[in-house]
Amino acid sequence: MSVFDQRESNIRAYCRVYPVVFDKANNARQTDEDGKEYIDFFAGAGVLNFGHNNERMTNAVIEYLQSGGVIHALDMKTTAKRKFMERFEKIVLKPRNMSHKMQFVGPTGTNAVEAAMKLARRVTARQDIVAFTRGFHGMTLGSLAATANRYFRGAAGVPLNHVSHQPFGCEKPCLGCEAGCGVESLERLRGLYRDTSSGVTPPAAFLLETVQAEGGVNVASKEWLQAVATLAKEVGALLIVDDIQVGMGRTGSFFSFDDMDIDPDIICLAKGLGGLGTPMAMNLIKPEVDEYWSPGEHTGTFRGQSISFVAGNEALSYFEDDDLMDEVKSKAAIMNQALQPLDEQFTMIQVRGKGMIIGLDVSTGERAKAIVEECFKAGLLIASCGTGGRVVKLIPPLTIPDEDLEKGLKILVDTTLKVMEETA
Amino acid sequence: MSVFDQRESNIRAYCRVYPVVFDKANNARQTDEDGKEYIDFFAGAGVLNFGHNNERMTNAVIEYLQSGGVIHALDMKTTAKRKFMERFEKIVLKPRNMSHKMQFVGPTGTNAVEAAMKLARRVTARQDIVAFTRGFHGMTLGSLAATANRYFRGAAGVPLNHVSHQPFGCEKPCLGCEAGCGVESLERLRGLYRDTSSGVTPPAAFLLETVQAEGGVNVASKEWLQAVATLAKEVGALLIVDDIQVGMGRTGSFFSFDDMDIDPDIICLAKGLGGLGTPMAMNLIKPEVDEYWSPGEHTGTFRGQSISFVAGNEALSYFEDDDLMDEVKSKAAIMNQALQPLDEQFTMIQVRGKGMIIGLDVSTGERAKAIVEECFKAGLLIASCGTGGRVVKLIPPLTIPDEDLEKGLKILVDTTLKVMEETA
Amino acid sequence: MSVFDQRESNIRAYCRVYPVVFDKANNARQTDEDGKEYIDFFAGAGVLNFGHNNERMTNAVIEYLQSGGVIHALDMKTTAKRKFMERFEKIVLKPRNMSHKMQFVGPTGTNAVEAAMKLARRVTARQDIVAFTRGFHGMTLGSLAATANRYFRGAAGVPLNHVSHQPFGCEKPCLGCEAGCGVESLERLRGLYRDTSSGVTPPAAFLLETVQAEGGVNVASKEWLQAVATLAKEVGALLIVDDIQVGMGRTGSFFSFDDMDIDPDIICLAKGLGGLGTPMAMNLIKPEVDEYWSPGEHTGTFRGQSISFVAGNEALSYFEDDDLMDEVKSKAAIMNQALQPLDEQFTMIQVRGKGMIIGLDVSTGERAKAIVEECFKAGLLIASCGTGGRVVKLIPPLTIPDEDLEKGLKILVDTTLKVMEETA
Amino acid sequence: MSVFDQRESNIRAYCRVYPVVFDKANNARQTDEDGKEYIDFFAGAGVLNFGHNNERMTNAVIEYLQSGGVIHALDMKTTAKRKFMERFEKIVLKPRNMSHKMQFVGPTGTNAVEAAMKLARRVTARQDIVAFTRGFHGMTLGSLAATANRYFRGAAGVPLNHVSHQPFGCEKPCLGCEAGCGVESLERLRGLYRDTSSGVTPPAAFLLETVQAEGGVNVASKEWLQAVATLAKEVGALLIVDDIQVGMGRTGSFFSFDDMDIDPDIICLAKGLGGLGTPMAMNLIKPEVDEYWSPGEHTGTFRGQSISFVAGNEALSYFEDDDLMDEVKSKAAIMNQALQPLDEQFTMIQVRGKGMIIGLDVSTGERAKAIVEECFKAGLLIASCGTGGRVVKLIPPLTIPDEDLEKGLKILVDTTLKVMEETA
């Protein structure tokens, strides 16, 4: 028995899906210790937008380490942090005329969401937050209350109060959806807020992902996003966009909502932000909101991670010109082209997505599981998500070579056809 | 105006205490961008037990990066993780006959505590957890409920339920303490649990630090720790030790409780665990407790951090023999020798601690603040903690050279004498 | 200054609306101490279904008092209680084939609702309860969480958790309603329950009034009530009908839902149950639900009120034949005939109701307030309800003489016309 | 099978202890339908301070009913209410220089407590309330959170938050008490409030009974009561005295705390207040606290019960001179004289009490149950209370004839001796 079997907690999960020991990795490939290579359509659950071991980043980090730069600095000022902040301002905030402040929170997405929820409650002096069906926002008690999945919620052991879930406004209706989402749902909600006898009061914030990744690759419509933003403004609530999984270029632009004409009060970033897959999280906060924070009210040990600043700085350089984003668009087209026929052929399959996050909804978790297993055997790392795990999620590195992308897509399509046949 | 002033959130704190930009660091020294060197008695809030830029670790990390090893792997199996786990088993668990499983949680201490709280609630089917006065366990909603500090709690914006605070059992009574701590307090608690009309029921767990670091360097007595452990067992509650700040050798032994004859069900580790100051957190869980977890019930993106595994592996090597722990003892003696005279000279000063975490309680936050500021000017980084910030906390790297230690102590003692005089 | 001004709490309310001191009362008339008579369309907020000082009841009570019968008996067995229970079984339960048990709770409606909520949570081991917009269920902390009105909720001082509000299913859409009620809303809810990633889970119970009295005289459609009942059964939740204000014959039948083909698990009764206006409350509980109670788990001092049993016994006699219920139908017709023209004449007026509870929705609270004040001056006691107090509620004794009814209606219609003119 | 067996809810309790059907009652006697008489040491759980069917009261009520006086009037002004209020002011408030306002709440003790808790939270803008071990304050969700008994709390089905329990300060230590009560416990609490890192904050109110009735006849010491009052004032919390069971003359004075030199902000009254055992409840509230109420914020249907006003008015007449209170003192002496020998003879028996509420703590619930059962057979109604039901509680009408009192005491003492022998 290996040390994993003997000593690792029963809670371990992905290592059960991919029962090998990985050793090396490069861009969109991982290699196990027996030398077998896998194409990676999972990318560390959306962390590795710039590929495994991105050479620009590893070189920069090695150089930084060799120079004796400060590695860990809490929220002190460092030259590494300054470089990152200046570049972020220049490349991301300035061009968008965004006045947002940067808050470096503990280096996990959940920490960013927790901080955003605290601040929204502080600013509005309200307690309730509206999140959305199928949303995923983290696993600590505050963010878990906003996470919709019943399995995760069931582990809390205490009631998850002060968050309510409203139907998410999908661009196209999910297969078999009964929740009645869309703009009408927001109209109803507005009616409830206006009625002082409804039992429902305006929230501190609306918290949403523009593309729900864990929730099954559900893409919000522009109309719905704008309606949420309008409603938020109308009732004095903040708009918080959790861009943790689909920000950082994933959808073809730095923020997932760049083409949505909304102006969030708080934006949560993590995952790809550290470039190389090392932890980092940051909230962008409008100044008029940020001023409600008092110094040190939400702290954490690992807020000043120079390795993530250095690698993240390299990541930002990908947004200095349009090259990568153009590539995302062309690769997204390749992906859609490969998968669309499945959508057309099978009523039980729906293809959804935006940019390089695409979901292949195969209607049942069993089927998706079979596809994931078969793909793994065929050399493709891919994972499922969504209700009951019914959606196979494609979220490869944005830097994946076309060759690898096409090879992976072929494995996926062939496998899907086979599984569909077997489960017909 | 710098980017920090213009763009960093109002919540920033340490950078206000140390208003310079740090650039380089080595062992117990940090250097600002103007080349001024500071002796570091703060060590990243207890993260950098093995010093800044520990060369064994940076070399190992550089080598790993150059080799193309997997950097980010969620909870998949990797060769880097195996090495770390095998070494941890061999050096830490086996010699202590500990059967505990390792759960790699999101890479922050708060995540470890949240996971432990969830599991305790699951195992016992109870909701309440007993934490202790002055305890610090994190800032996300679950762990924040266990954190005692009113300032931090006030930022929650919602009620912090399902945790109650009992008096912590200090080895020696704090200056001006009125809480009535000690073993008697546990006897009273046992009485309440036994009385079915008390309104108080046994908790899911007792959650404690053996030495409260943020809480003011309060050292629990052995008698009290054992009484908590006994009471926990008696009422069917788990014992959770949060060893995040004082584990990893800080007190002169790997775990802070190695000499306490207690056997915690769950131990939370983070901070020093990643060696170099990169994020990592882990819970050690008894197998009979761990089996209550179902796969994936508490997840997080950054659970498989190879850089932390690689550097952490080097950190573990410091526990292969007694050298470092012997040094801790001798350096602790030096620290006590330097500070004890202050304790004796001033009724308003108390010196407390264990191993290389020592608190200089100067009775008021104003005084401590003045000392911290003066020390900074004199080239010493040190911070305050405890109720109202009244305790100056010494938590230098365990690897600090005696010369730096003594130099830093001299600055601290001189400054303290001066400030005591000014505020007399 | 009177003792009321000097010594009664600031919370007093109705005495501000009717600033006289009442002395005598008979059937549908109250007389103030100056001898001025008022027609009563308020009937003690729906308590006095059988009129003030109903002679059959006062005689029975006087006789009982003179006989030396037990007056107060907690939940001991008494001959008075037996008579009441036997008659209730014979007149109400048997003819409807209802197997329900009778639980005598503390003598207030809120106590009945609290007990029902506890039991539903016990039976299902779930915490959340679904109540509906504009519902009113009481003012103690448990029932208040189910009460929708923001003003009442605002007095709680703590969060009102574990109840969520869904749109109520009105027979006809309220003026200006935006909540999107009706059966579709239940379909959406079913969709959310089925989706394990919705963040919404099936409740312990659905708690509703078939006609919302305080909420503005909103009458549920039969279709919607049946859909709620079906959904409850489907998801393993109880159906609780709060018939406190509209049961006991108010709508033309003993239960307000007798013509609705639903079969509630728990029915809450109070108000009219004690006949004479003395306190009493009772839950009717299906045996398979009731068996989850252990003896004494929900107690209260005033559960065994013989005066209420004796007068309530007389009240039950009104249901031995169809006379009173036939009268209710004919009087309801008179009321509708008088008010319908207002509905037709003014787009800002809507007339709603069932049996002898009728609401005159005049669109604004200011207008309703003016009507109530003018009516009072003209000798009619009537009150407003609903969102912002915009609905004038007619809820006269069921036993009101036609002459008084018509006189009161004339006052109301004239006043309304005048106020409409003034506020046009 | 009787209708009770067939149709009454499983929750029924006292009727299981006294398995007969009661028919008549007079002063301290109840008669079952077979004509068997019982001496009543239970008095409707402390309601019937002036005896069953008190003739002065039944006469007044009959006269009132015959006169056609308003019976039910919500919170409107009535002549009956004015008489009661004027008399209450004259007899109770004026002589004590109390400026308190009268709030007539829903006619149950729990309603009074709920209203008091709401108001305290409103006034202080705090959420937590401190109640005490073994306290009983009601069964609705708000008051239940303050009730200490685990059995009652277990029926809530949701967490009971925002109330914490501190050790009650008994005059003499209970048998086997381990809770560490007394003034020291308040000193510790003060210490926790002062320490901003304790995790404990000052409450909205301290809620207590001066003699815990249901909790086991625990009598608070004067020293402790004053210390609570001092602490409350010091930390800006209200002092609420729940005098529901032991007010109205039970302890030898109108209020149970008349000899305690404390000045409660809110006093809850119910039970004996309505004189005859009909429901009524009232809070006495200091004007500066009362002004935080807005009209109608805490309502309820049965707030204006003329029968209770009329009978309660007669009850107040008992406090116009010292006769009844003198009798209470002399009867209390008789009771103590009879029971004290048991206390002296048995180490497992403790006699506690004040005025005419006396507890016979026989150390186990089994023993107390046997005594209650045997007494019933011998013609004495008495009940048990306290932790595990270990305390036999004597709470006869204050108007009990000495002959009945002595007869009842003889039954109790003989029975106790017998049971002690059997269980030795």
From TrEMBL, chains A, B, C, D:
InterPro entries per the UniProt record, alphabetical: Aminotrans_3, Aminotrans_3_PPA_site, Dat, PyrdxlP-dep_Trfase, PyrdxlP-dep_Trfase_major, PyrdxlP-dep_Trfase_small
Gene Ontology MF annotations: pyridoxal phosphate binding; transaminase activity
Highest taxon, organism lineage: Bacteria
Keywords: Aminotransferase, Pyridoxal phosphate, Transferase
Required co-factors: pyridoxal 5'-phosphate
NCBIfam families: dat (TIGR00709), PRK09264.1 (NF006733)
Family: Belongs to the class-III pyridoxal-phosphate-dependent aminotransferase family.
The protein, known as: 2,4-diaminobutyrate 4-transaminase subfamily
Organism expressing this protein natively: Methylophaga thiooxydans DMS010
